[in-house]
Amino acid sequence: MPFLTNWLTVFFVGLVAVISPGPDFALTLRNSLTYSRRAGIYTAIGVAAGNLVHVTYSLIGIGAVISRSVLLFNALKWLGAAYLIYIGLKSLGTNRSLDNAPGPTGTKNLSPWAALQIGFWGNLLNPKASLFFLALFTQIIHPRTPVFLQALYGITIAVLALVWFALVAVVISQPAVKNLFLSISGWAERVMGAVLIGLGLRLVFAKGN
Description:
The protein has 209 residues and is an all-alpha fold. It has 10 helices and no strands. The longest helix has 26 residues, at 147-172.
């Protein structure tokens, strides 16, 4: 069945893209370690929401415009890079460990809305995501493809992102794992900050084609 073949293509290609280390993974990991499991899960929800936005505009053709416009692509690229570098600099500037942070569990507080926004904007401001969705969907979607199938393909990617990054948040926030990072929290947060800055700089120098 063409539908099953196309859906499996979306599933496996999307799975590889989602689990590949990148800004989404780094942001989810950082919030799970620095704050809490809940913060990590809401970050994952934000990432999935960002994916839905990418899916929507890619399916209606805006992704093609962005991929062909140097000005639009570069504007989005610089915004995304600036956001990642900003989050990274905040991590590098930390001057206290998680053990000394307020709260009964020894973790800092981050509201669900703030965590969701970090995941959402981190994903949305990544121009590579728009190119990925455009490249994938142009291979499997044709003028006769029903709208509900197009939506199903897009939702599949978003669900993959949500499940994967929520799983990352759950695993990394397990007491045994998190306690290990708590003992080196200052350095761990700075390392994550450096990773985010590196990803931001990589985005700056990424080519549009």
